[in-house]
Amino acid sequence: MEPNKQQQEVQQIDLMEVLGVMLSRFWLILFSGILVAICALIYTKVTTAPMYTSSTKMYILSKTENSAAVNSSDLSLSATLANDYAQLIKDRTVMESVVSELELSISAETLASRVNVTLPNSGRIVTISVSDPDPYMASKLATQVRDMAAVHIQEVMDTGAVNVVEEANIPKAQTMGDYKRNGLVGFLAGAVLAMAIIFIRYMLNDTIKRPEDVERYLGVSVLGSIPMMDSDKKKGKRRK
């Protein structure tokens, strides 16, 4: 039992020592993370075209809502069907119709990858967001996707009507999703890489640094220690 306890104690001390080494090199870890994050942002800026996102909202009505008799089950059913509407909006038929109407040079699959459909937790207001390098084209695409999706939903689901809640806006600011994500990933990658290098150098360094290391690794008691003078430390640095 005693060797196990001693081994656990040595392991705890080693972990604390590693933590101390990491904290003493915190500035290096932080600098590495910032440096790699900057490189990631520059790479994203060079390789990625700026994107603008335009959004529009529509409200989908069931046929029963056109009449005076509307009960809670009808409202609940319409809210459930909102998920089906979201699938129909990004349907290949809608995307191909938009590409054909606007005579786009991109494929329907590429357009679908730029379309994002979001639904509230409760309700039937569907938000359609479309991204494009041109802010005016992004607004035009959002409007066209909404109009084509409204026709497609009415034909497939046999709904009453699709009303426009909010027209597509012309975005002024770029979409910063890729920059934030790539910058964060770059920072974490740089920090982890720096920590890995520090840990490897710590594990490979088997020199005796403190009197406690002699007792721990060699099992020999230290009778005394002679402190180094400042002049000796400077000479040691010069030799290195």
Approximately how much helix is present in the residues?
55-70%
Overall number of strands: 4
| Low-pLDDT regions | 5-13, 67-71
Tell me the β content: 5-15%
How would you state the average pLDDT, rounded? Answer: 78
- Please provide the ordered H/E string of secondary-structure elements: HHEHHHEEHEHHH
Task: Give the strand order of the largest sheet, numbering strands 1, 2, ... along the chain.
Answer: 2-3-1-4
| Rg from Cα | 32 Å
Shape: elongated
Structural class: alpha+beta
Count of alpha/pi helices: 9
Largest sheet: 4 strands, antiparallel
Roughly how many Å apart are the termini? 44 Å
Plain-language structure description:
Helix 2 packs antiparallel against helix 7 (177-204), helix 4 packs across helix 5 and helix 4 packs across helix 6. It contains nine helices and four strands. With 240 residues, it is α+β, with helices and mostly antiparallel strands. Mean pLDDT is 78; it is low at 5-13 and 67-71. The protein starts with a helix and ends with a helix. It is elongated and about 90 Å long. The protein has helices at residues 2-24, 26-47, 72-89, 92-102, 108-114, 135-157, 177-204, 211-218, 230-239, and strands at residues 52-61, 115-118, 125-132, 161-166. 62% of the residues lie in helices and 12% in strands. Strands 2-3-1-4 form a four-stranded antiparallel beta sheet.
